[in-house]
Specification:
It contains 1 helix and no strands. It is mostly helical.
Length: about 90
């Protein structure tokens, strides 16, 4: 049979103790987080600028098409005037 005797404790002594171990970081995690944040910011800026460039290209294409239609309409107008003048002279 085993003997389960324990030593008497003082009435104000705690029943058990808790040990807290704090691990301190050297800040490497914050540096990595900052680099990731900067890369994300640069990527968003790049895509925003590319989107604006595409919009500018679309606008330029529409303006070019409108100018082409205007030139064609002027040519048709000139041809109609010439035809009317020829008919008038006859």
């Amino acid at each position: 049979m085993t003997d389960n005797r324990s030593e008497p404790r003082a009435p104000d002594a705690p029943l058990h103790t808790t040990t807290i171990i704090e691990k301190r970081s050297s800040g490497g995690g914050m540096v990595i987080l900052a680099i990731i944040g900067l890369a994300l910011l640069l990527a968003v800026g790049y895509f925003f600028m590319e989107s604006n460039n595409r919009e500018d290209a679309k606008s330029d294409a529409v303006i070019g098409a409108a100018k082409s239609v205007d030139d064609a309409a002027s040519s048709v107008g000139d041809a109609a005037k010439d035809a009317a003048n020829k008919l008038k002279d006859e």
